[in-house]
Amino acid sequence: xxxxxxxxxxxxxxxxxxxxxxxxxxxxxxxxxxxxxxxxxxxxxxxxxxxxxxxxxxxxxxxxxxxxxxxxxxxxxxxxxxxxxxxxxxxxxxxxxxxxxxxxxxxxxxxxxxxxxxxxxxxxxxxxxxxxxxxxxxxxxxxxxxxxxxxxxxxxxxxxxxxxxxxxxxxxxxxxxxxxxxxxxxxxxxxxxxxxxxxxxxxxxxxxxxxxxxxxxxxxxxxxxxxxxxxxxxxxxxxxxxxxxxxxxxxxxxxxxxxxxxxxxxxxxxxxxxxxxxxxxxxxxxxxxxxxxxxxxxxxxxxxxx
Length: 306
Known about the structure:
This protein is an alpha/beta fold. Helix content is 35%, strand content 9%. The chain is built from 11 helices and 7 strands. The chain has helices at 43-46, 107-119, 134-140, 160-167, 186-194, 196-210, 219-228, 236-240, 252-264, 268-284, 298-304, and strands at residues 13-16, 29-31, 49-51, 99-102, 123-127, 147-150, 155-158. The strands form 2 sheets. Strands 1-5-4-6-7 form a 5-stranded mixed sheet, with helices on both faces. The protein has a two-stranded antiparallel ribbon with strand order 2-3.
């Protein structure tokens, strides 16, 4: 889309998936909403919903396609703001490419990938299987993502904002200060909170049902995600438990059934609700080039990564 924020238009990287992964899952349908001409937010960038059979929670299925109706795009009244487009810097190619270890669905991982795209840094993307504990543990001592590695320095670190701060403060990664600090906008944070349950209900079942994302190409990875990620209206403590006999958490069979039910539910009303929320977001976005006044900032990285 011509309206994509600059860092989302491409991720300059060399991607690699977990070893010994089976072919991708069954076919599916993508739903895209067409934005009106003056809309600052690209709906197609935010609303790519894979819709398919609930049986994928147990094993891949041969039949997986089902059409979904999408509400018409709402017209926008606000005129677009004139703003200076983001200018990507010169390509940065190191002799020994930095590596990011990520999950494709993880917003904190996407933060780092956006920053690397903004900085135009060539890098290797290593997608970890969702149930892969040894790889991140060997790197940083625990299961976490993203992880950033500079092989030539024998250097490894985690925490998305720390990684971004590093690559935007060292000359070897291109001009420094390309990403402005966060502005502390409470209105965008409130909007993110307002769509949290809606996005979890739409996205989480589809992450594991489609077989598209590399971390979920095997059943163990899908089940690991379902085990640890609750669906609304359940809270994390109710879903996972706290490790005690009094609260062991929800049985796995029940979790699988809830994911399957969520996947089988008609998503049309939720898509309509999300489209309405995207209209609200458009009023908060400063321009098609960056979401806050002043230029591309951590506000953009946090917003567009989710």
